[in-house]
Design goal:
single chain; alpha/beta; Rossmann fold; 5 helices; 7 strands; PGM_Phosphatase
Amino acid sequence: MKKQLYLMRHGETLFNQLGKVQGACDSPLTTKGKKQAQQAATFFQENHIDFDHYYSSTQERACDTLEIITNSNHFYQRKKGLKEMNFGRFEGESTELQPKGFQNFETFYEQFGGETASDVQNRMSHTLHSMMDQEDHQKVLAVSHNGACFYFLKSICHHSDQKIPTHFPNCAIFIYTYEKHHFELIDIIDPTSKKSML
């Protein structure tokens, strides 16, 4: 039987709003970010999607997003493996200073004390596989981050002709099936518009 993983990006934060680099560092959800999390909750409710396990990155913006979605009524586990990419000394700086294009992110930040793309990809993959390999995990919700979600998706679709977006709206929902230790992307939903991004 195929299991299901719903992997999400967190809601909008103050640093998102201000155009600041936000990886290992953190900032609070904005009013808009809280509304986006509520819209995600509505999407799950309207589609009768219930989860047996909940996970979040250890970062506050992800935990707060999940707590809004669940109305703080469900136990969840925090996982460091779901954290955003560490951008080293670029943390907190203007996003205008970053190189353009995800191809430039592969190893760029390592020289500034940050992570490589493969670092993020490997820890995301290890964390999500270890979660979904558990027998009682049939339908799981996990809240993570834009870069972390992108690099995990890239690892899944590297043999596919499917074009992968590089940026996702806050609270974008990635729907995967999991069977025989293999993830397959089914859809990416923007809960604000309730539309597929594929």
